[in-house]
Amino acid sequence: MTVTTAPEAALGVLPRADGSAKYSHAGYTVTASVNGPIEAQRRDEHPYEAHVDVIVRPAAGVGGTRERHLESILQSSLTQIILVKNFPRSLIQIVLQVEDTPENDYVNTKLVQASLSFAIMPALFQTAVLALLSAGVPMRATATATAVAIVPQDGTKKSVVDPSPRDVEIAQSVHVLAFTSHDELLLAESEGDFTVKEWDDVYETAKDVCCRPVPTKEGMEMVLDDEHTNGPDLRHFLRSTMENKVASDLHWK
Amino acid sequence: MTTTTSRPLVLPGDPISPDLIPSSSSKPLRLGPGLRHVPPSDIVPVVAGQLITNHQKNSMWVEYNNNRYLPTPGDLIIAQILRSGPDLYYTLLSPHTPPATLPHLSFESATKKTRPQLAPGALVYARVVLANKHMDPEIECVSQSTGKSDGLGELKGGMVFEVSLQFARRLLMAKSREEGKVEVLELLGGEGLAFEIAVGRNGRVWVGGEDVRVVVAVGRALRETDEGGLGVEGQRRLVRGLVRGLK
């Protein structure tokens, strides 16, 4: 079983883009660039809103239907948090380049054709949000995302946060959920067989991972609290990444 | 003049506690860039940055850095002429954006017969007149009310360097040395180099001068101060190194 490490992010990695971010977590590494608001093509112009164009490029190859599917899901959720009404007839272009995916130790990857797994979606989503924050594109709220898989284990089913490729392979269902910083559900995509009760449990687990309140000054209770060891604290990670960026931008003040 | 001591980091959508919002009975509250008003009474940040409040002027805004310029009326910018139309020039403020229009007669004491003829690629120092989200921006090189150019107009010769928007704002501050912590230009002038500068809020700085090496050295100094995040000490060292190379 692969060990899940803490998420890492670097902002402003591409100097020529308006905003960029490189994010890695659970074996997935994605680099995103954001350009905008810039002039849109005539066919993409919307009279009252900006057009959000998401392009997903896999680590190898050009990308096919699977990547287009991920793009359309990301586009519909990112359009909800970006303030698109501020930039009519413009384009906000987000390009996501997958650099690394975790290896499945049980499968010979040289024989299997590479195609993006569903579980990469939270990494893609998070990188896009970080790149948008780095570019200074006005947004309604920030968002965090996570993947949960329901894996049969010893006769019962267990929900696994940040599933490894092996987990995804043997899982009954894989779910990706994203929440905004106002604790609203932004994205909910699922693959596989599951009951409504199982989805409710997945929802609670994902909400716990994505919407953990930021630790207050008396943070000792949070550190010792064993209930919240389901996954990394994504909101806190997002905030501390942005704190570093703003502090380095405003070093002269 | 002085701002509050607490300067919290805000992310888009963060709630702002009411005690941070300045209140004054006489002046209305003015919201600067990075904030939006959600009726009836919510003020919400839209970018990630530092929330700054000025109790004297009863205003608040978010201080952040980025590279994509959004035109606002009253800004002084450096534009490049793309082509000439029947009554206007089409100019570019930043790449991949719709061109801004500059009327042919929008120069000091210009008539149809005596107007400046600008070729594509020429640079102008202009002021943004009209900029809203529905229309292409418009710029002018003369003040409408007084008819004088006040330093606006064509920039002949020299070179243009790109800087981040925040660095351009620091250069344009009234007290760029004390509050903006940018000393490079004063230091280079103090060493006896002869050059002139025009700073555009769209992240462009034009440097003009007779000696090309001086122009390039000034441009390098600005670029390295911006990209390297140099403080006052670092700027002094940088200027010393550049001047040594010139002599």
UniProtKB/TrEMBL annotation, chain A:
Gene Ontology cellular-component annotations: cytoplasmic exosome (RNase complex); nuclear exosome (RNase complex); nucleolus
Localization per Swiss-Prot or TrEMBL: Nucleus
GO molecular function list: RNA binding
Assigned keywords, A-Z: Exosome, Nucleus, rRNA processing
Origin superkingdom: Eukaryota
Domain annotation Exoribonuclease phosphorolytic: ranges: 9-138
Any one of the GO BP annotations: rRNA processing
Main localization of the protein described in the UniProt heading: nucleus
TM segment ranges: none
Family, similarity comment: Belongs to the RNase PH family.
Protein name in UniProt: Exoribonuclease phosphorolytic domain-containing protein
Organism: Cercophora samala
UniProtKB/TrEMBL annotation, chain B:
Record's keyword terms, sorted: Cytoplasm, Exonuclease, Exosome, Hydrolase, Nuclease, RNA-binding, rRNA processing
A Pfam family per the record: RRP40_S1
Main location as per UniProt: nucleus
Cellular component GO terms held in the UniProt record: cytoplasmic exosome (RNase complex); nuclear exosome (RNase complex); nucleolus
Gene Ontology molecular function: exonuclease activity; RNA binding
Domain K Homology: 158-212
Region (Disordered): 1-34
Protein name: Ribosomal RNA-processing protein 40
